[in-house]
């Protein structure tokens, strides 16, 4: 059995506004990337998501973003390295407090949205994010998109890096995600997501929309928790992975 991880972005409700079915997803995935209040989530949602994740044996990850609540963290922002480092520290630290209050521990960090996309292409931003994670806890895992500057920066900082691919997003030939503004950037049907994941695992790397192979280890598969088909996709992907000889594990339990 080959160990692999299934992760999802959760805790993205805010006040009376609900997003996604976290309770259902937490019965399927192995690791949760929990919003820290800057693109979604609030203190109550953060703590409840932590509690529910721990009850399901799901490992905890912080999902920091740009301070962009109205734009769901998907708008590009220009922060100085000093601002960016403090922004990441602030958010991860908040989730660490919630985890400690529930008897748990944050074990990974995964940047969200525009922050992730920009850090995947910008070496300076990537280094700043990695520096912030290392400053908090050198044992934290950096969950980074495969073939990215963020992946390289994490390794350069001496962090343990787990490389992820997205079940519901297509890729360009440079390894970056296809911008959401372009047709075909997001896969919606559950079977489409399964086929996309298995194609990459069988090929041993990212398979771009143009058919190019970018070889890379793949440690984790991400299913976005805010889509209407997220639960169905996650369930189908889990079954397909097990059928293909993979053993599902939390990020800390991966070899």
Written description of the protein model:
With 255 residues, the chain is α/β, with parallel strands linked by helices. The protein has one domain (2-253): Glycoside hydrolase/deacetylase (TIM Barrel), CATH 3.20.20.370. The chain is built from 8 helices and 10 strands. The chain has helices at 22-25, 43-55, 81-101, 113-121, 123-136, 149-156, 190-203, 230-243; strands spanning 2-10, 31-35, 59-63, 106-109, 141-145, 160-166, 205-207, 213-215, 220-223, 246-248. The strands form 2 sheets. It has a 7-stranded parallel β-barrel, surrounded by 4 helices. Helix 7 packs parallel to helix 8 (230-243). The two termini are 12 Å apart. The mean pLDDT is 96.
């Amino acid at each position: 059995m080959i160990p692999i991880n299934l992760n999802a972005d959760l805790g993205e409700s805010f006040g009376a506004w609900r997003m996604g079915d976290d309770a259902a997803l937490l019965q399927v995935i192995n690791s949760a990337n929990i919003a820290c209040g800057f693109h979604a989530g609030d203190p109550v949602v953060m703590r409840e998501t932590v509690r529910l994740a721990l009850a399901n044996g799901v490992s905890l990850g912080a999902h920091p973003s740009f301070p962009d609540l109205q734009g769901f963290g998907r708008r590009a922002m220009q922060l100085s390295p000093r601002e960016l480092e403090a922004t990441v520290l602030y958010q991860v630290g908040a989730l660490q407090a919630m985890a400690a209050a529930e008897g748990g521990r944050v074990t990974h960090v995964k940047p969200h949205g525009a922050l992730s996309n920009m850090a995947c292409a910008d070496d300076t931003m990537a280094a700043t994010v990695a520096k912030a994670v290392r400053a908090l806890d050198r044992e934290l895992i950096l969950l980074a998109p495969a073939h990215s500057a963020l992946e390289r920066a994490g390794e350069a900082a001496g962090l343990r890096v787990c490389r992820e691919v997205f079940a519901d997003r297509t890729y360009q030939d440079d390894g970056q995600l296809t911008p959401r503004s372009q047709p075909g950037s997001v896969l919606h049907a559950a079977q489409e997501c399964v086929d996309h994941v298995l194609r990459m695992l069988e090929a041993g790397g990212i398979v771009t929309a143009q058919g190019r192979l970018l070889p890379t280890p793949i440690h984790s598969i991400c299913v976005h928790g805010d889509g209407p088909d997220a639960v169905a996709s996650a369930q189908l992907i889990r079954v397909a992975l097990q059928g293909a000889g993979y053993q599902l594990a939390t990020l800390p339990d991966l070899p």
